[in-house]
Write a structure and sequence with these properties.
Layout: H1 3-13, H2 16-55, E1 58-60, E2 63-73, E3 80-93, H3 99-106, E4 112-126, E5 131-139, H4 141-145, H5 150-153, E6 154-157, H6 159-164, E7 168-172, H7 173-178, E8 186-190, E9 195-204, H8 209-212, E10 215-219, H9 220-227, E11 235-240, H10 246-257, E12 261-263, H11 264-267, H12 269-307, H13 309-317, H14 322-355, E13 359-362, E14 368-370, H15 377-403, H16 407-415
Parallel strand pairs: 5-10, 7-9
Antiparallel strand pairs: 1-11, 1-12, 2-3, 4-5, 4-8, 4-11, 6-9, 7-10, 8-9, 13-14
Length: 416
């Protein structure tokens, strides 16, 4: 143990009550910082998983085809041909005209796990109870299971039942509740040109209200017949091994296949910004606890400087330099910081574990029956970093003031 550390500990123990309050404040501030970040991060991560499990990492949609014409340059003796694209007269091509070829090209990307061809369109579901506007999704079940979490989202019924029945249909929980439908019941799907009857084979729940109350899954061939779309696909849904790389992969896919590719980050930008704002806001709010504790520490250290002038003068007379005096006070701040951070880490981990067990029913943008938390080392490091900055500045000013004390001035003031 160095002499500076020993002296710092003695000074610290002379104000045990005040320093204990500062330590507790830092600990609680660190703990609540970790808790709020774990909550916001957990809900954000769960929302992202829900989006990836329902709408995929990337969706490949329509394309624009430029109208090109050839012009000659250089005159008759040295003609050279070039083409000009007229942007104002670009031809819009709806959907994916050759889904098989495009799907094959997409599967060549190393990050792609699976591709599902989807034919979609609007219809109206009717029962004896009521009618509702729905959005039909025609899929090949095996392909779609490879790019979504549909297998885990089924709450009633069976995917095998859907696979066996050509006229089978899968509904969301909200739509089934509103139309009072159960597995085995029949429902009519009506378009502008025809009406067909289907059997409910499974009911799923994603937690995303707009999906659960409007999306209806049919077999791909049946959807083509109902919607009068015998060729092509409305879009291709793509799953990735590393969804975080979706923006880069979407740009490459656009260049290769000539279709618009939308990453999940682009599609869900608004909600991601909301979660980011909540995370920053909660961090700033909870940091005020640490800041207030730092102000209390500053006041305590300033009082120690005033009370220990004589001892500081004696230390200077014994040969202690100004840097040594500063080190003594910085040691005090470091001890309080270290104890507060360790206490805060332990309390924060306990609170996160406790909160994760609290029941809460959330439906709307995802489905969960308890608080969702994220266990991340970065939360603990950020909390410790914020506390370190506050404590450093709270300790630095009293330490500099103590270091500037001159033994002669202290003796003269004491004599007066």
């Amino acid at each position: 143990m160095s002499p500076e550390f020993h002296i710092a500990l003695r000074f610290l123990l002379s104000r045990k009550r005040a320093m204990t309050m500062s330590l507790a404040g830092i600990g609680f501030g660190v703990a609540f910082f970790i808790l709020t970040q774990a909550q916001t991060g957990g809900f954000e991560r769960f929302y992202i998983q829900t989006i990836l499990g329902t709408s995929g990492a990337i969706q490949v949609h329509d394309r624009f085809q430029d109208t090109l014409r050839t012009m000659e340059a250089g005159g008759e003796e040295s003609p050279s041909g070039f083409r000009i694209a007229h942007r104002e007269s670009r031809h819009y091509v709806e959907g994916v005209e050759e889904p098989a070829a495009v799907s094959e090209a997409l599967r060549e990307f190393s990050n792609v796990v699976g591709v599902s061809e989807v034919v979609s369109g609007s219809a109206r579901a009717r029962t004896a109870v009521r009618g509702d506007a729905v959005w039909v999704y025609g899929i090949r079940l095996d392909d779609h299971l490879a790019v979504t979490d549909l297998a885990g989202q089924v709450v009633r019924g069976d995917l095998g039942y859907f696979q066996r029945i050509p006229q089978g249909v899968m509904l969301g929980t909200e739509l089934a509740r509103r139309m009072q439908l159960q597995v085995g019941d029949t429902v009519n799907l009506e378009t502008a040109e025809q009406l067909r009857r289907y059997r409910v084979t499974a009911i799923y729940e994603t937690g995303v209200r707009e999906i659960d109350q409007s999306r209806v899954y049919l077999h791909l061939g049946e959807a083509r017949s109902l919607l009068k779309k015998p060729f092509g696909a409305s879009f291709l849904q793509v799953d990735l091994r590393d969804p975080a790389n979706a923006v880069h992969d979407a740009a490459r896919m656009e260049a290769v296949v000539g279709h618009f590719a939308y990453s999940w980050q682009e599609r869900e930008r608004a909600w991601l910004e909301v979660f980011r704002a909540l995370r920053v806001s909660s961090a700033l709010t909870v940091s005020t606890i640490i800041l207030i504790s730092g102000l209390g520490m500053f006041n305590t250290l300033a009082m120690i400087v005033m009370e220990k002038k004589r001892e500081i003068a004696i230390l200077r007379s014994m040969g202690y330099r100004r840097a040594d005096i500063m080190t003594i006070f910085l040691w005090q701040g470091g001890m309080v910081l270290g104890a507060g951070v360790v206490f805060g880490w332990a309390l924060g981990a306990g609170l996160v574990a406790l909160v994760s067990r609290i029941p809460i029913r959330i439906r709307g943008i995802f489905a969960t029956d308890h608080f969702v938390v994220e266990w991340a080392l970065s939360h603990y490091l950020w909390a410790a970093g914020v506390a370190a900055v506050v404590v450093f500045f709270a300790t630095l000013l009293p330490a500099r003031r103590a270091a500037r004390l001159e033994p002669g001035d202290v003796i003269r003031n004491a004599a007066a």
